[in-house]
Specification:
The complex is a heterodimer.
Chain A lengths: L1 H26 L6 H18 L4 H24 L5 H20 L3 E3 L6 H13 L4 E4 L2 E4 H25 L2 H11 L1 H6 L4 H27 L1 E3 L6 H16 L4 H24 L7 H23 L1 H7 L1
Antiparallel strand pairs in A: 1-4, 2-3
Helix pairs in contact in A: 1-6, 1-9, 1-10, 1-11, 2-3, 2-4, 2-9, 3-4, 3-9, 5-6, 6-11, 7-9, 10-11, 10-12
Chain B lengths: L3 E12 L7 E12 L3 E6 L5 H9 L6 E6 L2 E2 L5 H4 L3 E4 L13 H9 L13 H12 L18 H13 L5 E5 L7 H17 L4 E4 L3 H7 L2 E6 L2 E6 L9 H29 L1
Parallel strand pairs in B: 3-8, 3-9, 6-7, 7-8
Antiparallel strand pairs in B: 1-2, 1-4, 4-5, 9-10
Helix pairs in contact in B: 3-5, 5-6
The chains are: A mainly alpha, B alpha/beta.
């Protein structure tokens, strides 16, 4: 039971990462590697602020700002200095590794004694719903804190998805989607395409940093390695969500991203319980993303014998 | 003077400047378009007519010269900034619309061309029904498909919608870049009809590039023939003077003769002196 609650909570935290990747990958068709750096810097900034006695809200807010700034840097490199988006992301993310080290002061910061979002959620749940310190669910002892954390993350992840869907249907949001879909058309309709790309990268990396900041608080430490592979994890969440709910409408698509993140975590939890070496996790994630991207093409090729025959 | 919508002063653009491959796509072009006039630009491939449109729209930067729209200098304005005043329909019907967005969303974006975009919902009920009426006026039954991604429509349907999008907020200048060249004859005819109606309704100042001589004589009050980055012929009041396609063909023949003469003269000089 505790494992399940943990997997659900982490899944919801990583759903925010998936939403960020949605903005760069599905709206702008950019593989934005800034995500790796932004996730790490989000964790680093939140940890550094918490250790210095900031509130959970201020620490998380600071992390989001840092992530948005990182996205802005990548956007500047790409739109003003004409660096390809992939390289711009790699450069920013590499630079952010050092920034995260400076911010944290060392490669690892413990948050065990800090007042992160988990204890904030626990206190709120105690005050408003009279949540006991621990309770029994399906014959297992579960701490009130973990339930409260799960509840808060559910609110945050769904809230973020709803806000993003609403935003993408505003005039600015629609202009953003047009700028990603057809830059030439967007310019002809007086949309500042470069500005929209920068805005999108800020928004996306703000979400990614939020995800990193919450992850550090939930795990009780920030580590310099945390961001490695964040983009691929976000992609996996997104693609799994698309496989589950499809992409017919924006709301469904974004709900899929949240659901995909949770489902992916549950799969990972199940696989590890079944004996998968946790060290193989990134290998499996990468293979999964590759599989989802390549499989439809392979199926199409084998599904049409005539075409395959022509090739042979 | 105040009746001039667009004014080009010595506008030049060179590809590969300063190299032996330098091509003067636009060579000190001078042009004034009267407000409310319909001007057609003809020319052979590489004559500079597309460059002319690009220079006015801002997708091509000038090496020299000035562009004034309604008396206001816009030479330094970016493409998207100019688009508040200048609207465009492209040759490729897929260029003018965003395939992933619905018909209604595309139209709503076009409605925001002149003004500021903010955090208002793109499609509230009021705006939707206004768009529905605008689309119904096309008479193509597309008002039933407002929520379809525009990418699934045919080229002709998309181009008709692009014409609507270009004219629903009245532009100071409408640029048409061979906008029927990629369509089948029936769709082309329909798009021309819609263009004519929109231009007449808004008495729009229009500049159209085309390869079709019949479109040129049917639509243009004035016909420009471009050649080697310059305006070689400028025919005014072409409709009153009943200029015909054959007259235009003759002009093209003359240009070809001039070219041949140039070439043989150059050849003679080379033989004599090199």
């Amino acid at each position: 039971m505790n494992l399940l609650i943990g997997a659900l909570t982490i899944g919801l935290i990583l759903a925010l990462l998936g939403l960020g990747v949605f903005v760069t990958y599905r709206i702008y068709r950019i593989l934005d590697l800034t995500a790796d750096g932004a996730f790490g810097v989000g964790a680093a900034v939140a940890a550094a602020l918490l250790v210095r006695g900031a509130s959970a809200l201020a620490a998380t807010g600071g992390a989001v700002l840092a992530g948005m700034l990182a996205g802005g840097v990548t956007g500047f490199l790409h739109t003003r200095l004409r660096v390809t988006p992939l390289l711009a992301g790699v450069l920013t993310s590499t630079a952010l590794y050092s920034v995260s080290l400076f911010v944290m002061g060392s490669g690892n910061v413990s948050l065990v004694s800090a007042d992160g979002f988990v204890s904030v959620a626990e206190r709120a749940a105690q005050r408003w719903f009279g949540m006991p310190p621990s309770l029994t669910l399906f014959d297992t002892m579960v701490s009130g804190a973990s339930i409260a954390a799960l509840g808060l993350m559910l609110l945050l992840a769904l809230g973020a998805a709803v806000l993003l869907a609403l935003f993408l249907n505003t005039e600015i949001g629609t202009a953003m989607r047009a700028a990603g879909s057809n830059p030439q058309m967007a310019r002809a309709l007086a949309i500042d395409v470069n500005g929209m790309v920068v805005l999108g990268l800020c928004l996306a990396n703000g979400l990614v940093a939020l995800s990193g900041a919450l992850m550090a608080q939930y795990e009780g430490f920030a580590n310099i390695q945390m961001g490695i592979g964040a983009l691929v994890t976000g992609l996996a969440n997104l693609l799994l969500g698309e496989a589950l709910l499809g992409r017919r409408t924006l709301a469904r698509w974004l709900a899929g991203a949240v659901l995909g993140a949770v489902a992916f975590r549950l799969l990972v939890g199940a696989a590890i319980r079944a004996g998968l070496d946790p060290n193989a996790l990134k290998l499996v994630t990468a293979a999964l993303v590759l599989g989802v991207l390549v499989l439809p093409r392979l199926l199409r090729r084998t599904g049409l014998p005539a075409e395959a025959g022509e090739r042979a | 003077m105040h009746n001039v919508a667009l004014r080009l002063e010595a506008v030049s653009h060179a590809f590969h400047p300063g190299t032996p491959n330098e091509v003067r796509a636009l060579d000190a072009v001078e042009l004034e378009l009267e407000r409310g006039s319909f001007t057609v630009v003809l020319g052979t491939n590489g004559s500079g007519k597309s460059s002319l449109l690009g220079a006015i729209a801002g997708s091509l930067s000038l090496s020299e010269g000035h562009i004034l729209l309604d008396g206001q200098e816009i030479t330094q304005w970016s493409e998207s900034h100019r688009a508040r005043l200048i609207s465009r329909v492209f040759q490729n019907p897929f260029t003018g619309t965003a395939a992933d967005l619905t018909v209604a969303e595309n139209l709503a974006l076009a409605e925001g061309r002149g003004g500021r975009r903010w955090l208002r919902r793109t499609l509230d009920r009021e705006r939707r029904s206004a768009l529905e009426n605008a689309v119904a006026e096309l008479g193509m039954g597309l008002e039933e498909r407002l929520d379809t991604p525009i990418g699934v429509l045919s080229g002709g349907q998309r181009q008709a919608l692009t014409v609507l999008m270009a004219t629903m907020v009245r532009p100071s200048l409408l640029l048409l870049d061979e906008h029927t060249a990629a369509l089948d004859p029936r769709s082309a005819e329909q798009v021309i009809r819609l263009t004519r109606r929109a231009v007449a309704a808004g008495s729009l100042t229009t500049l159209m590039v085309t390869h079709s001589l019949s479109e040129a004589v049917r639509l243009g009050d004035r016909i420009l023939v471009m050649h080697r980055g310059r305006i070689a012929y400028d025919l005014q009041e072409t409709r009153q003077r009943r200029v015909r396609e054959t007259d235009l063909l003759q002009l093209f023949d003359q240009l070809r003769w001039a070219d041949r003469l140039d070439e043989s003269a150059a050849e003679m000089l080379r033989r004599t002196y090199v």
